[in-house]
């Protein structure tokens, strides 16, 4: 792994997965919609179940925890306990994300060309 230069901006991702197995789809949808709205208002951009930010992991982690706590407070009046419904809640730094299901991100196949298998073309006196 190559070290990240100090000039390169850090990027962080937060993953939030809800427990649809043990909670109703209505409850999960209500929490998810509120989380998406609040995360986007706080500067995260949503990509499927990822929330991306141009910050270091510590900043993104603190911000995401604050947003989940605020969401819990906002939905408490409805009897929704957000932290009980969250199954996974991770934060990590990244340099690049490749969606392996997207055809546009397929890595092209590159064939090796053995330049030793044919003589080099040299123009006499061109040195």
Brief description of this entry?
This protein has 127 residues and is of the alpha+beta class. 31% of the residues lie in helices and 19% in strands.
Using brief descriptors, characterize the structure shown.
alpha+beta; single chain; disordered N terminus; 3 helices; four-stranded antiparallel β-sheet; 4 strands; globular; 127 residues
Q: Identify the strand order in the major beta sheet.
A: 2-3-1-4
Spatial separation of the terminal alpha carbons: 40 Å
Gyration radius, to the nearest Å?
Answer: 24 Å
Helix content: 25-40%
Figure out the total of helices: 3
Q: Which oligomeric form is depicted?
A: single chain
Strand content: 15-25%
List the secondary-structure elements in sequence, H or E.
EHEEHHE
Class from helix and strand fractions: alpha+beta
Poorly predicted runs: 1-7
Largest sheet: 4 strands, antiparallel
Strands, total number: 4
Shape: globular
Mean pLDDT: 82
Structure description:
With about 130 residues, the protein is of the alpha+beta class. The protein has a domain at about 25-95. Helix 1 packs across helix 2. The chain has a 4-stranded antiparallel beta sheet. Mean pLDDT is about 80; it is low at about 1-5. Helices cover about 30% and strands about 20% of the residues. It has 3 helices and 4 strands.
């Amino acid at each position: 792994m190559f070290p990240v230069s100090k000039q390169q901006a850090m990027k962080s991702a937060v993953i939030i997965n809800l427990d649809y197995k043990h909670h109703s789809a209505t409850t999960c949808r209500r929490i998810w919609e509120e989380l998406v709205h609040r995360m986007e208002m706080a500067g995260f951009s949503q990509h499927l179940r990822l929330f991306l930010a141009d910050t270091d992991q510590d900043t993104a982690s603190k911000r995401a925890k604050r947003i989940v706590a605020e969401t819990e407070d906002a939905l408490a009046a409805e009897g929704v306990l957000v932290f009980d419904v969250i199954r996974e809640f991770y934060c990590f730094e990244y340099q690049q994300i490749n969606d392996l299901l997207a055809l546009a991100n397929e890595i092209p196949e590159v064939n090796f060309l053995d330049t030793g298998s044919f003589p080099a073309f040299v123009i006499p006196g061109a040195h």
